[in-house]
Amino acid sequence: MTSMNKITDSLIESLPTREDLVNALGLASRRSTTADFASVIGIFGAGLLIGAGLALLFAPKSGEDLRHDLGERLSSVNQEDIASAFNRGASGATGFRAAQSSVGT
After folding, report:
1. pLDDT at 92 exceeding the cut of 70
2. Within a domain: residue 39?
3. How would DSSP label each residue in 23-60?
4. Which domain, by its residues, includes 90?
5. How many domains does the chain have?
6. Is residue 88 a part of any domain in this protein?
7. d(Cα 62, Cα 68) in Å, to the nearest integer?
8. Model pTM greater than 0.85?
């Protein structure tokens, strides 16, 4: 019986694995497009952060000057401009709902 077990074991060891068969047939598992897309988005995001950091590093103005300029620009936008923009958006949404109800959706 022992020689039969040895023959069986050697036969089993010499057989190709499931992965070997699948690869030989060309049916190997492939990465999904979602995984590829996620890696592209990750690389793009990293590049975006590195680019933003380099832009701040090599900016011609100091941080204090930049903050001062941004503060002036933001203070120049008054509350009436903001309210006007908000009202335009609200009236656009109302017009969209009226058009949507007239179509019947």
Report:
1. no
2. no
3. HHHT------HHHHHHHHHHHHHHHHHHHHHHHHHT-S
4. 63-105
5. 1
6. yes
7. 10
8. no
